[in-house]
Structures are given as C-alpha cells and as structure tokens.
Amino acid sequence: MSVAFRRESDEEHKEPRFELPIPAGPNLVTARGLALTRAKVEALEAEVAGETDEARRESIRRDLRYWHTRLATAELAPVPTLDEVAFGTRVTFRLNGTERVLDIVGDDEAEPAAGRISFSAPLARALIGGFEGEQVDFGGKTEAIEILAIAAIPEDAGR
C-alpha cells in the first residue's frame, strides 16, 4: 500500500503547540501585579481541575505553565522614591501637545488602554529616569516629552 494512503494517527497532522513566550529581562512586578499573577495561577489551577475536555485542559495547562514561571520569577520592585520617573510610578506628561497619565508597571500587568504600560515599552524607557519639569527625547525627536508630575500609583489603581 502506498504511504500516501496510510494514516498513522491524527496526532502527526496537528500543528505544533509552542509554549507561550516569556518576555526577556527581569520579571519586575508591582504589589498589584504580584497579586494579579497569584490570582491568575489559582484561577487556572481551578479551571484545569474542573475541565473534562482533554484538548481544552491541555490548553489551560499551557497557560498555567506560563503563569507558574512568571510567579516563580517575579521580583517585587521596591517602592519608588518619586523624585524621578521609575518602575511603579504614575507619570503625567505632555507629548505632541496632549497631556497623558500613565502607570509604569511589569510586562504582565501592562494594559495600555487602561493607562498601564510595561517598563520595557519604548515610551516607558524614554520616561524612566526623568524628573518633573524635564523634557526628554522620544521617537527620534529632541525634547519631545515634557514630564509634568510624578506620583505613586494609588492602591486602587485597577482603574
């Protein structure tokens, strides 16, 4: 019989499922970010325990492996001093004539639409180390951003 007509199993025809990529660099987290990571692990563990569909269970396990790794490697960042923009600060700035407010947080906590960006994002990297009243370069433009205020991220910053 020709090899073309032989079917060993369905497994050999499936697309490979790769692990979720882990962001490069340190896994800095805020206190909120650490709590969110713990909650995600707990929710996924409960979901795996209750799932009866094997394909869905394996998908959840894949997500759980990612979150277990993120929890194990989480580094709680020290509380910032607020004299300069740093990880864990809320910064008010003006860019292209528009005033914006952003919280600088960890990779897994970032949610740009809610005003939380990762410390590894280009905008955050431009802001970090800046002082209130300073103008910093961004996007190839000199003094493109004016830092207006630096504050702690409020405890209820779920926004």
UniProtKB/TrEMBL annotation:
Stretches with biased composition (Basic and acidic residues): 1-18
Keywords: Coiled coil, Elongation factor, Protein biosynthesis
Domain of life from the UniProt record: Bacteria
Region annotation (Disordered) ranges: 1-21
Pfam families xref list: GreA_GreB
MF-aspect GO terms: translation elongation factor activity
Cited InterPro entries: GreA/GreB_C_sf, Tscrpt_elong_fac_GreA/B_C, Tscrpt_elong_fac_GreA/B_fam
Coiled-coil segments on the chain, per record: 34-61
Segments forming domain Transcription elongation factor GreA/GreB C-terminal: 83-150
SUPFAM superfamilies attached to this UniProt entry: FKBP-like
Name of the protein in its database record: GreA/GreB family elongation factor
